[in-house]
Amino acid sequence: MAQTVELGGRSLRMSSRGLSVTEPTAAQWRMRVDPRPPDGIDEGDLMRRVARGDTDAYSTLYDVVAPKVFGLVRRVLRNPAQSEEVTQEVMIDVWRTAGRYDAARGSVQAWILTIAHRRAVDRVRSEQAAADRHQTVGARSAETDFDQVADAVTDRLEAEQVRNCLGTLTELQRESIMLAYYNGLTYPEVAERLDAKLPTIKARMRDGLIRLRDCLGTAGS
Amino acid sequence: MSTSELHTLAGPYVLDALPADERIGFEEHLAYCSACTAEVTRLREAAVKLAANVAVSPPPSLKANVLASIAQLPQSAPAESEQPQPTAPGEGVVLTPRRGFGRLRRGSTLALAAAAVIVAISGGIAIDQYRDNTATTATNNQIAAVLAEPDARTVHGEVKGGGQATVVTSNQRDAAVVVLHDLRTLPASQTYQLWLIDSSQTAHSIGLADATSLTKVVSGGVTGKIAFGLTVEPAGGSAKPTMSGATLISMT
Q: Which Gene3D superfamilies match (chain B) (predicted)?
């Protein structure tokens, strides 16, 4: 059975056919190092201060991330009152568990937004019975969402960059990713919605994200 | 599910697009696939950028509420001190002191179900910093689902070097629950590795175990396997099992 281990950024793959070594690409190295923080705010430093109980640092961090947390949760839940409630829970969790943040596992924003997205998705899935879920969600259009997302955005430059990069994806990659991330669908639900095979959707989500990552990693500064 | 199939789940995983059972299975896989963990970290940075596109300022009252809440709220200690403690001896697992490979009666299986759930709660494995109670609940649901299958069967054996291993399998569900209890503590340079062996005597790794007690759900790759194996390997695991000192429990 093949086994892959990672040493110093290189992937060593052992299988019955021997040992192969994969060097990361330049883009992977860049992603491995924490992405550049926007606006000169060192979010890693903020996070360390928050973990030590610094409420001023927390207030700054809140201002940086809360619009994304709230916007994302609202997009998935589509219920303003619930979205405020979940955003509040997430932001309180960030304070409470700040000491658990591990910079080696990703950026501060990735940590917080992962918590937020998972919380929103879990909420939406637990509340919607399978039957009516297919009807209500099935009626939404990913393409419409894509055209309308730019309203009420707080950081237009960053949003525009994401939008441009989404535009470089194939239609199936883009729809798969957006239905999952913005609408909270599982990949089998996405496959049903787009009338595609399950392995296809899984693969498009992955290669779409890789393309998105490469585009975001090189576009702008 | 094969290893390469599992690898493709990194995309849906970072989009939170895996159904609960597959999410748990993939998180188990992440625990011993460092290449997958690295890929998840990279893809996650891209996925969360999508939030920029929908960002909108929350009402100012929300910040006031949050700041008021945290002023009263103590912070958790860092992750190192939050690792779940191994189950204390005699707590949780009530493994029937039974020798050989026979099947347990249905009643015993249900007792074991309750025990496995207790272990999952008290000695669950923390996979990553995002894992929360939802995941624990989902694991318990998965365990219950395996145990509820009409074809669920239980095998049990002593682990060489000390401890007990119990495996509940359902071919119908293509899933298994492995309960390890009271294993000998290994030096940091070594790890336990879990295997399922097929009819051609090939061992397929199903993960590593560093705790002395744990409950693990295996999704996929169970149907048709004839034995469960537990070996002691160098830290990081091995591609093939080290047979000296290996524990093998027949599942047929």
A: Anti-sigma factor, zinc-finger domain
